[in-house]
Structures are given as structure tokens and as C-alpha cells.
Amino acid sequence: MIFTNARLIFPDEIREGIDVVVADGKIAAINARSSTDRRDEVIDLNGNYLAPGFIDLHVHGAVGRDTMEASADAFKAICDFHATGGTTSLLLTTVTAPLDQIVKVLEGSRKIRSTISAIAGIHVEGPFISKRKAGAQRTEFIQDPSPAAVRHLLGYGNVLKRVTIAPELPGALNAIEALHEHGISVSGGHSDAWDEDAQAGFNRGMRSVTHTFNCMSSGRRRGVHRVAGLLEFALSESAVSCELIADGHHVSPTLMKLLYRAKGPQGICLITDATAGAGLPEGSAFSLSGKDCVVEDGACLLADRSALAGSAARMIDVVRTMVRDVEVPLNEAVAMATQNPARAIGLETKGRLAIGAHADFVVLSPKMQVVRTFAAGREIWSG
Fold first, then answer.
1. Rounded distance, CA 180 to CA 175, Å?
2. Which one of 96, 122, 247, 376 is CB 3.0 to 4.6 Å from 313, fit for a cystine?
3. Is 88 part of any domain?
4. Alpha helices per DSSP H over the chain
5. Residue 338 maps to which CATH number?
6. Does a structural domain hold residue 353?
7. pLDDT digits over 142-177, tens only?
């Protein structure tokens, strides 16, 4: 199979006149364009962009379905919807809930993962978070990360890929270290941490922060001194990658520009934080962790309009926001949605156009609309 007549998006440039050859679901060659008469094996992309498939580290749901349902039907519906936005790999993300409900999600994904290729694993967001920075999460289920709870989660290390944790909680540092030692990405978030708490978490293995600017501490006074919070620590530490919900609602363009200037194109992982309201019509009601929510003006809100409840975005939407509102070059915005998240959770064969990588692609029009989505060289969505 040969993908031809496209503008290929690499992290550092966009190149034309190159064919991508796919065999057995992987990229077998990237060559200068050549003529061929074997039309049945050629996919002409008509001058559109060809990028690696998007990787979303933070997805709660879509089209009225929620990760917490822990069912194959829900998982498939979520993945199918996000494929329309160019996503070929994602982390199904939990909410703060009793631990046994979170474990059901881990068990459910382990059973079904081999049949739904888009599921790269599970992101456990909560219950190890701060009640002061809970956001739309349910505070009654928040708990400190006890050794027993962490051991229970580690039993699902084959599907558990990421855990959001507030590093200031009692027991958090030992939990961070244990998770990190087992190859699980640890992300600081929903946190009221002081600078030294964040530094301590980093020293034990925390290498990411969750939805930067949202539900995290920032600079404030302690006595007569002005002290950094988790936000400023993340901005200043080059080894920390920053999730960003660039949906046009969670973070203003000025703040997104600030993050881009501080972290550069390699330090940001674009996410959707999509909830069950994504893909539903305007005015639709849905539930998030038992809380009533509504889709309004393209955003997902708690029903009382007191806070955002995740987003209604797809990955193409957040990539487009970075290009149009933050003036990030397209190739860099795509890297934030592909190469960077792949690196953050150790997906070595995803998120890049390179020989040996999986043939997961998204075809984009010049107006940054998704035209086609491919997984392992097979078309999974067409517009």
C-alpha cells in the first residue's frame, strides 16, 4: 500500500514529493515519489496533509457514553467518535470514584483492549487529588494514596498507563515513586501543592502535569513571601510535560501563548479532556460522575453553570486552536498531538512518520479538517 500525493507533517517541517509505503500495518519505507501503475495499491491523498494519528492522553467520554461505564460498547463508541477527529490512540480516563469502580474500568479495558486498537490504556484521574482543587470531581470519593490502594492499581500495570495525583497529599511521594518504578506515567494535577511539594514529586518521578492552568495551584503568598505553585514549577522545569486543553474554553489564548513560550513545542501534550457531552447536540444533557451537565456554546458545563465539566472537543479541534489562536506552526501543533504524548507514556511505535512505526495516520485538508483516519494502514473513518 502506497500513500502518495500528500504533504507529510514531521515535527520540524512539512515535506512534499514523498510517498509512504505501508506493509503489515507498519511504515515500511518513506521514499521520494515514484510513478507506479499498480493503482489498486495506491492511495492518492490529493495534495492534503498526512500526519501521524493523534494521541489523546485524557478522554472521559463522547456521544453520551462514559469511560466509567466500563463496557465494551461504551469504549467502542468513545473511540469511534474520537476517530472522526483524527485520534488513533487514546487513554480512557476515569474520574474520582470508589476504587472498586475504577478497578472495573481497568478490568474492562484489559478484556477488550485487543479488539479496540485505539485503546492505549487507562488514565486514572483521581481519587488521589486535593479537595481544594477538585473542579468537577466528586469530593466525597477523594482519598489519600494508601499503600494498599496503590498496590491494587499496580496489579493492572499492563493497562494502567497514567495516574493523576496531587503530590502534597499524605503518602503521595511514596505512591509516585512506586508508580514511576513500574513504568507508569505520573502527572501532578487537581493539586494545591506548594513549590517544594511539586519539587518533591518531581524528585520521585512525576514528569507531567494534568490540564495545565486548570485545577492547580499557582503563585501565592506564604507569610510575607511569594511562593510558586504547581503551575510555576511545571513552567520552569524543562523535564515536565504539560497537558493542555486547547478547546477555546478552558484556557485563554494569552495563557496558551505563555505556555508555548515557556515550554516550547516539545513540552506540551494537547488533550481534549472530552466528556460524554462531546459529539452531542447543543443543549444536550449528560452526566459526569453522577453530576448533571449540559452542552452549551460548544462547551461542557455543570448544569448549574458553575464550572466546566470537561470538554466537547476532538483532537483536531485543539490542534486547530493552537494554529489559529496561538499562531503555532502546524507541524509543531501536530507534534504536540502525536510525538509528545507518545513519548510521555512510552508508545515507541506511535506518533511519528518513521520506518517501523505503526501506520496510524490522519489526513487533513488545507483548512485543517479531518478527511480520513487510518489505523495500522486500515481506514477507520472517512469524511
1. 8
2. 247
3. yes
4. 72-83, 99-112, 147-154, 172-181, 195-204, 230-236, 253-263, 315-325, 330-336, 339-344
5. 3.20.20.140
6. no
7. 999 999 999 999 999 999 999 999 999 999 999 999
